Every structure is written in structure tokens, then in C-alpha cells.
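Suppose a colleague, Dr. K., hands you the sequence of a protein chain of 145 amino acids and asks what its three-dimensional shape might be. Before reaching for any lab equipment, you can write down a predicted structure in C-alpha cell form. Begin with the sequence itself:
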Amino acid sequence: MGALDYLISNFCTVPRTKTKAMQTVEIKVKMDCDGCERKVRNAVATIKGVKTVEINRKQSRVTVNGCVDPNKVLKRVRRTGKKRAEFWPYVPQYVVANPHASGVYDKKAPAGYVKNVQTFPASSETEEKFMSFFSEDNVNACSIM
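The predicted structure, expressed as C-alpha cells, is then:
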């Protein structure tokens, strides 16, 4: 029985198809009228795997839910004539640790949103370097002098 299992497992395998995971794709695209909105909605809704399409014209935002490739959705939106379409660059303000840091705040962002920029705190190595200038053990061993 062991030899039969070995032969079946190694030689009789069926290739598996790779399925995409369910995800949300958000795209920023300027839409001026109902026609633009309808054109973008119809173009995106016909992609295989799309479950829902939500459009917020006030924020210039298209949200697509489904088992889709984000780059394919962006490419389809650009084919409608919206060449300046891009992935949604904003996140809610409460997600960012320091929303008022340089490069994060954007005047074009909708209310309550800031740019999706990673801000890293100062590393502990630099803090240790500055703290080693002074020694409590030997007061006369100041490195600055």
C-alpha cells in the first residue's frame, strides 16, 4: 500500500489554480459628472471577481471589493480616459502616530485624512550615543570638553 500511495502522490497530481484573496482596492480619480462616474463604474464592475463598486465623487474616491488584482483595477480605470488615476494615498488621521509631521499633512486630503507616510521615531542608538557623553560615575570624564 505504501508504494501505491507514493506513486499516486508524486505522479497523479492535479495542478491547482491560484485564487486571489478577497480585498479592498481604493483609487483616487477625479470625476466631474454623472457620465464620468457611470463610465468608471461600468469599466470596473465588468472585471472578473469584483463584488461591489462604491464611488464617492465628492472625495474623488472609488472603492472596489472583490477577488481582484489592484493593478488591473487601476489599469481599467485609466483606460476610461482618467490618466491621473492613482491608488488612494490617504489614511484616516487617527491611524498615523504623528499626523502633523512634515510630509504627512496635505491640504488636498479630505477632512479627517492625512497622507499615508511612514514616520519613524528617533532610534535608540542615537539616544545612547548622546547619553554616553556624560558619565555619572566619573564626573570629570565629559566627552564634550
